[in-house]
Amino acid sequence: LDSSRIRNTVSLAAASSRDLLLVTERYPVFFCTSLSSTLQQVSRRTLSSSARAQLENKVPHKQKLFQEDNGMPVHLKGGTTDALLYRATMALTVFGCGYVLYALIDAALPKKKA
């Protein structure tokens, strides 16, 4: 691109020591002090020396649970929650199939005129 064209398209002007005004041909964008204060807070949090509480690594336990050969299907190895979700899904599926059959039969048979 032509450098004079770039210079004409984007011009930077310092509004104050904390504010920066970026002016383009069509869209003025204003970065205010709230953005700079937010960035300062984020940088302070990520660079702070205080350590967060360490979480227990559950991945090895879950790998062992799901990889053991106990004849159980993998979608039920999660325990009671998986069993309840599986049964609820099957119940909704059976109900949905029954309702579809009812709707098809109702639509296929003509109504009796009284």
TrEMBL record:
Membrane topology, as annotated: Single-pass membrane protein
Chief location of this protein within or outside the cell: mitochondrion
Keyword Transit peptide carried by entry: yes
UniProt KW keywords: Acetylation, Membrane, Mitochondrion, Mitochondrion inner membrane, Oxidoreductase, Transit peptide, Transmembrane, Transmembrane helix
Molecular function terms, GO-annotated: oxidoreductase activity
GO annotation terms (biological process): mitochondrial electron transport, cytochrome c to oxygen; mitochondrial respirasome assembly; regulation of oxidative phosphorylation
InterPro entries: COX7a (IPR039297), Cyt_c_oxidase_su7a_sf (IPR036539), Cytc_oxidase_su7a_met (IPR003177)
Pfam families, alphabetized: COX7a (PF02238)
One GO cellular component term noted in the UniProt record for this chain: respiratory chain complex IV
Family note: Belongs to the cytochrome c oxidase VIIa family.
Protein name (record): Cytochrome c oxidase subunit 7A2, mitochondrial
Organism: Cyprinus carpio carpio
Lineage: Eukaryota, Metazoa, Chordata, Craniata, Vertebrata
